[in-house]
Design goal:
Length: 527
């Protein structure tokens, strides 16, 4: 009996070293792809979709790049997943996590070639990651009690996060926006309350933060342009005359007068609906669907601002922020929760008119209006700002802060090195290579800035032998710098997530010893 016939004809099955090689190579290839986007001097990628419209994205965000790839290699998919999870969990560090995992695999590959069993490597990595985390925890600081210092920590973190993104030129401006927005949340991580509106035109410097809520719509014709003490009914209902929906119905009438009667009946129905809506005692009606001319006239006569076709994202946010609920029937006004705000007015941003709701119920709500040269710039600015907002809101919860610029990695590597020296057996080789992988991060940051990475990292290592060293890479001057003086800080939570996810992913890929691809189902010729 031959083993070959275990699988169908098309199925492939790779065992042992070949399977492991395929996984390692896949994982490392993904890491090499995003490696060049790491750090303040990282480059961007242009992603061009092959679908309709050939949309182009220019981005530096690891998760965005990897999400857009169509990957066949199973190990590479694991890498894409960890970057996604990192993006959802803490919002930043998406590139770092993939690069670190890739470096761990690269080290593991050498160890496997030395005939060290993957399980030995894994247990070594486990010891190393524990040690690295403890090393970080010892050196964090926490200024939660002191509002002023905490704010400056947040500012530094925001600037560090933004410095590797498109916003790095105006990072101070945007750091202030991001910190203000997050401070308004008063400790909740609900980023829904921060709305980002993109308006092409102007330059990135013209972006601003506005308290309250801005809806990207115009106020209808002939209606009041500002309303104080607004009571808002947020609705999702069809405002075309409620047509009798019978598919392909034909109505025979014997005269034009009859047609007019039918029309009048429809109009009447509509009028009753509008009166029901007005009966709620509102002075602003926001509908997700269109409001047609006739109902619009009725609302205008009643002095009610009617805003039509507010897209779903906008309307859900508006309901959340004004403390209302989305209504779809209007027969019993007492059960509907209305939204409230102090003032509704029309404002101009660039060429466009928008509606501004200020003094809303949910005090923490605010809107960041981004301006920029083109849509691509705006999209990338939004992604960058989103990263900063995520990191800040996480930091507000877990306010432990670290220095940045390759400092944490060097610190961890030093501790892990010491652990390797005191560990007997082959595990020590794995622990040693973990330290080596950690040192790759500052190496890559330096490489991306076009510096002599070998020299810099060697200097860093020497400097970190001192107690309490604060050295990291200062890419601007291209030398070793004091990270505290430069104000380069990172959130502990982000670093910890990077460390743990990367190790787990590398571990998972290391465990693979067989890759089985199933045969595709055949299509029979049904003729």
């Amino acid at each position: 009996m031959q083993h070959d016939k275990l699988f169908k004809d098309e199925a492939t099955d790779e065992k042992g070293d070949r399977a492991r090689m395929a996984s390692f190579i896949g994982g490392m290839a993904v890491a090499d792809l995003v490696k060049t986007t790491l750090g303040p001097k990282g480059m961007d990628k242009i992603l061009q979709s092959t679908g309709r419209g050939h949309s182009v994205t220019v981005t530096n965000d690891g998760a965005t790049i990897l999400k857009s790839l169509h990957i066949d290699n199973p190990a590479a998919k694991v890498m894409v997943d960890i970057s996604k999870v990192q993006d959802d969990e803490v919002g930043d560090g998406t590139t770092s996590v993939v690069v670190l995992a890739g470096e761990l695999l690269r080290e593991a590959e050498k160890l496997v070639a030395m005939k060290i069993h993957p399980m030995t490597i894994i247990s070594g990595y486990r010891m190393a990651v524990e040690c690295a985390r403890n090393a970080l925890e010892k050196r964090v600081w926490d200024n939660k009690g002191n509002a002023e210092k905490f704010r400056s920590d947040l500012m530094k973190i925001a600037m560090t996060t933004l410095s590797s993104k498109i916003l790095s030129q105006d990072k101070e401006h945007f750091a202030v926006l991001a910190v203000d927005a997050v401070m308004r949340l008063k400790g909740s991580t609900n980023l829904e309350a921060i709305q980002i509106i993109k308006k092409a035109g102007g330059s990135l410097k013209d972006s601003f933060l506005d308290e309250g809520f801005i809806l990207d719509k115009k106020i209808g014709v002939g209606q009041p342009k500002r309303i104080e003490n607004a009571k808002i009914l947020v609705a999702n209902t069809a405002m075309d005359t409620d047509k009798i929906k019978i598919y392909g119905a034909r109505v025979r009438v014997d005269s034009m007068a009859k047609v007019a009667e039918i029309e009048a009946a429809e109009k009447d129905k509509m009028r009753r609906k509008v009166q029901n809506i007005i009966a709620h005692g509102i002075n602003c009606f926001v509908n997700r669907q269109l409001i047609y001319n006739f109902p619009e006239e009725l609302f205008a006569d009643a002095g009610i601002v009617a805003i039509e076709h507010a897209d779903f994202d906008g309307i859900e946010r508006l309901a959340l922020v004004t403390g209302g609920e989305i209504a779809s029937t209007f027969d019993n006004p007492e059960s509907v929760k209305l939204g409230h705000c102090k003032l509704i007015e029309e404002i101009m941003i660039g060429e466009d008119k928008l509606i501004h709701f200020s003094g809303v119920e949910m005090g923490q709500a605010c809107t960041i209006v981004l301006r920029g040269a083109s849509f691509h710039v705006l999209d990338e600015a939004e992604r960058s700002l989103h990263d900063a907002l995520c990191v800040l809101s996480q930091t507000v919860q877990d306010s432990r802060v670290l220095l940045g610029g390759g400092w944490p990695e060097m610190l961890m590597a030093k501790e892990v090195d010491e652990l390797a020296r005191s560990t007997p057996g082959k595990k020590s080789l794995a622990i040693d290579s973990f330290a080596h992988a950690l040192r790759q991060i500052p190496t890559i940051i330096a490489d991306n800035a076009g510096l002599d990475s070998a020299d810099l990292v060697a200097q860093l290592r020497a400097d970190h032998q001192k107690e309490d060293s604060k050295a990291g890479i200062d890419v601007i001057t291209g030398a070793i710098g004091d990270m505290e003086k430069l104000g380069i800080s990172e959130s502990f939570k982000v670093k910890q997530a990077v460390l743990l996810s990367a190790t787990e992913a590398a571990e998972m890929i290391l465990r693979v010893d067989e890759v089985i691809s199933c045969a595709p189902r055949k299509r029979e010729n049904r003729m």
